[in-house]
Amino acid sequence: MRIREYTEADWAQVRPILDEVVTAGETFPYDPAWPPDVLRDVWVERPPGCTVVAEEAGKILGTAKMGTNKPGPGSHVATASFMVAAAARGRGVGRALAEHALDWAHRQGYAAMQFNAVAESNAAAVELYRRLGFAVIGTVPEAFAHPTLGRVGLHVMHRFL
Fold this sequence. Notes:
4 helices; Aminopeptidase; 29% helix; seven-stranded mixed sheet; alpha+beta
């Protein structure tokens, strides 16, 4: 598996991953009714941010986007988001994308990385981020409407680079 920068030619394989994750409604606060152009605008970062794909034998297994968390006085903190195809989960794709994002942020000179909205019910992601050195610095109670669990909290997670 290799991680490389996203190109527009990748959209045909990236869109089904985004559709799958967003439609499931279990991890991302994205609206499943968004048309493809809105979903692309939300996912594909413009410079100085970056969008990447994890690819194996020409098949895209997952994707990540990373950039500045907030402008101005907060611009020294990066953020990132990750989506992995259901068929590729449990194979280290999410970890590879997260490590790539951390490395990218470090090379760009960010001081820290912050995830603003990690569903507390997303145990696999929360555990992965903790293993990568992130800490839950707060939880917004009942901020995410999970399709089967009802309202669950959204963690804010942080780590210095």
